[in-house]
Design a protein that fits this description.
Blueprint: H1 16-19, H2 22-38, H3 42-59, H4 63-71, H5 74-86, E1 96-98, E2 101-103, H6 105-131, H7 135-146, H8 156-186, H9 196-227, H10 246-269
Antiparallel strand pairs: 1-2
Length: 274
């Protein structure tokens, strides 16, 4: 398996985060996102970061695996940081002025806070969903939460099945891409030298076989599902019946306390004037 692709990779364990019900993990993720977007003060961001680090420690997910998942957003993080740094205006005198580009102290704080928010959000999402929940658990949990929508005609099972197949085949497609690139390099194709246009053209020799391989896998999967008389979610049962336990409600209380603590710290630091 390509270790650089962390999306869809499940890290097994027996921690409280692993044992939490999948439906509750989705609810906890929503609460965590609310806390991330509510954080505005230095103390609230400090609380959010400390909570994220504690979540990493409790889940026992290797730090290297988490850092590889954060590496995927490095360009988005850099663009977000630069935009907030140079395009934040203030009534105070700029610290640095270079033509129309000006850097204010407020812009530095805003860029730093935005970077921390994105890092905490991605790290928390990876811990709660990707690394401590298998793709099967995620799809079944999401289907259970969205099941009431099926009563108004929304094909919930079809949606979750598509999501499961997409997550399942991300590592497989990454392996196919690596194999195709290795095969093309053995034929003398160079991906690292030449102009940008030449490099883009060389990628065509990778993309076309990858598309062909993807369509072939999709066709094989469709035939296999038809041979097993798959007809959607109507009348289907689940091998594992999901039930909420005491641990789930403890985790819910902890994440609710995080949201409340974030809002309270904002109120205290800004003098109860948001």
């Amino acid at each position: 398996m390509n270790r650089s692709i962390t999306l869809g990779q499940y890290y097994p364990g027996d921690t409280p985060v692993h044992r939490t019900d999948g439906r509750m993990k989705i609810i906890l993720l929503i609460l965590f996102m609310v806390a991330c977007f509510c954080a505005r003060s230095f103390s609230s961001f400090l609380l959010l970061t400390a909570f994220t680090l504690a979540l990493v420690f409790v889940s026992s997910v290797p730090l290297g695996l988490l850092l590889r998942s954060l590496r995927m957003i490095i360009y988005i993080l850099a663009i977000t940081f630069i935009l907030n740094l140079f395009f934040t205006s203030s009534d105070e005198a700029p610290l640095v002025s270079w033509g129309f580009l000006k850097i204010y102290a407020e812009g530095i704080w805003k860029a730093a806070f935005m970077a921390v928010r994105v890092l905490d959000l991605v790290a928390g999402s990876c811990i709660l969903i990707s690394f401590t929940s298998s793709p099967v658990e995620v799809t079944h949990s999401l289907e259970a939460l969205l099941k009431p929508l099926s009563k108004i005609g929304i094909p919930v099972h079809v949606f979750t099945m598509m999501m499961f197949i997409a997550l399942r085949f991300i590592p497989t497609l990454a392996e196919d891409a690596d194999r195709i690139i290795t095969a093309q390099k053995s034929r003398g194709l160079d991906f690292s030298s030449g102009s940008v246009i030449k490099r883009l053209r060389s990628l065509v020799s990778v993309l076309i076989p990858l598309f062909v391989s993807s369509f072939r896998r999709a066709d094989e999967l469709a035939v296999a599902m038809e041979c097993r008389c798959y007809h959607g979610g109507e009348g289907r049962t689940s091998l594992r019946v999901m039930k909420y336990r005491a641990l789930d409600f403890v985790m819910l209380a902890v994440f609710a306390a995080l949201v409340a603590g974030t809002i309270l710290l904002n109120l205290i630091e800004f003098g109860y004037k948001l």
